[in-house]
Amino acid sequence: MTERPLTGTMRPDRSPLSLTEYERSGGYRAVRKALRMEPRALQQMVKESNLRGRGGGGFNTGLKWSFVPLEDDAPRPRYVVANADEMEPGAFKDRLLLEGNPHQLIEGMMIAAHAVQAEHAYVFLRWEYKRAERHVKRAIAEAYDAGYLGRDRSGPGAGLEMHLHVSAGRYMCGEETGLLNSLEGKRATPRSKPPYPQVSGLWGRPTVVNNVETLANVPHIVDHGVEWYKGLSRSGDGGTKLYGASGRVKRPGLWELPMGTPLGELIEERAGGMRDGFSFRAVIPGGASTEFMTEEQFGVKMDFDSVTEAGSRLGTGTMTVIDDKTCPVGALLNLEQFFAQESCGWCTPCREGLPWVVKTLRAIENGQGEPEDMEVLEMHIDGLWLGRTFCALAPGAMEPLKSGLRLFRDDFERHIREGRCPYR
Questions:
Q1: Which residues of 70-90 are buried (b: 16+ CB within 10 A; e: fewer)?
Q2: To the nearest 5 percent, what fractions of the chain are helix, strand and coil?
Q3: Cα atoms found within 13 Å of the Cα of residue 107, Cβ hemisphere only
Q4: How far is Cα 245 from Cα 368, in angstroms, rounded to an integer?
Q5: Cβ proximity of 278 and 269 under 8 Å
Q6: Rounded Cα gap, residues 253 and 176, in angstroms
Q7: What is the pLDDT of residues 225-270, one digit of tens each?
Q8: Three-state SS for 190?
């Protein structure tokens, strides 16, 4: 039976475990062990586990923590922030963890705080997640009552203060430095890097920002050890992964599986394949800002390196399946409208380019496109690519468009040639 450390103790209805129930299942055992370890040794342990950022970046978590200065004269206070903004279209994995087992996140944040010697921690929560808000708020209160949180160091905790911050509700708040600006009460625009948040983050102090799923992995690494954790995986990346599938599949949902589970196994076995009357055409593997993958790539292991080698990105690992009866031009128009709306407007290429892309796609979808519109779209893919904008929003928006133009070129040309959408 596959081990499921993140979700194995959750109830089917996602009602959260109380603190007592969490402790009975082994909860808060890892933090007691972690508090007896030297911070650098704890960082090294997580680094060797090869836990990579589950928000989509895939950066080694322990290595990220090691950039925080710990010298006696290093700036204080220090902060740990859980990025629970989860606004990537098609992503709902962090919501499951927040609603079903909030104490697991709190314990992971406590261990992270000890590893970087942080005094304060924030959960930065997507404002629509009202059920998660109630569960996290209650869990934080229970942890304070039990002495796990709070400045009193005589209890089982480490003197950590934890706060729940409900986001204002913009996609940019999920970007690491945009999140920090928002948390400071400012407009959620990205910051220039360097300096990176580990050196100068929240209010100019050393700060670690990790995704919810990333932090939820940490207690299990400390509790069971590096080799056990790496043994859960079917690839070089450590642990399990929450994979999701939406679209016209028979069983859309979310599953905790070994990291590196092949794409075809996820779609055909876990999601049950396509619904009757529909055929598989392509999939966006990890949120809206990743390139399409096809049936020829069903053998690709869904881990960070393998998906990159296949020409896309793992991202959040929550897939959106495109079927043969959905217009790919209309689907791309929908995606680009989202990114244009969520652009913070900070840099000109993103602010002006994304609406131009939307205008061009809308014209093609509505039968008013011209042959030269294909060149306009390709020009924007180049002009909004990595290195041309201030942050990764616009390059991310270009990833599905770039692969979509390649895979669905016949559909684009048919729209233009026939002056209509052939799927209507």
A1: beeeeeeebbbbbbbbbbbbb
A2: 45, 15, 45
A3: 28
A4: 33
A5: no
A6: 27
A7: 999 999 999 999 999 999 999 999 999 999 999 999 999 999 999 9
A8: coil
- In the 3-class helix/strand/coil scheme, how is 1-56 assigned residue by residue? CCCCCCCCCCCCCCCCCCHHHHHHCCCCHHHHHHCCCCHHHHHHHHHHHCCECCCC
Strand partners, 60: 52
Q: Tokens 């959040």 correspond to what residue?
A: 316
Under 8 Å CB-to-CB from 25, ≥6 apart: which residues?
A: 9, 17
CA distance 384 to 382: 6
Asked whether the beta carbons of 285 and 29 are under 8 A apart, the reply is no
DSSP string, 119-137: SEEEEEE-TT-HHHHHHHH
> Do strands 120-125 and 280-284 pair parallel, antiparallel, or not at all (unpaired)?
unpaired
Q: Which residues contact 376 (CB under 8 A, 6 or more apart)?
A: 356, 360
Q: What angle do CA 70, 173, 5 make, to 5 degrees?
A: 65
Residue type, 349: P
**368: how many CB neighbours lie within 10 A of its CB?**
13
Residue type, position 387, single letter: G
pLDDT at site 1: 42
Containing 242, the helix (H) or strand (E) segment is strand 240-246
pLDDT tens-digit series, residues 35-78: 999 999 999 999 999 999 999 889 999 999 999 999 999 999 99
Alpha carbons 357 and 394: distance in angstroms, whole number: 11
CA distance 186 to 182: 5
* CA 23 to chain CA mean position, Å: 27
> Rounded distance, CA 147 to CA 174, Å?
30
For 393, list phi and psi in degrees, rounded to 5.
-65, -55
Kindly report the average pLDDT of the chain as a whole number.
95
* pLDDT for the residue numbered 372: 97
| Token couple for 236 | 């070089």
Distance between CA 284 and CA 321 in Å, rounded? 6
* Cβ neighbours around 48 below 10 Å, total: 16
Give backbone dihedrals phi and psi of 88, rounded to 5 degrees, phi first: -65, 125
Query: In the numeric block, which tokens belong to residue 239?
Result: 């642990």
Cβ-contact 58, 312 below 8 angstroms: no
Tokens 């020409």 found at: 311
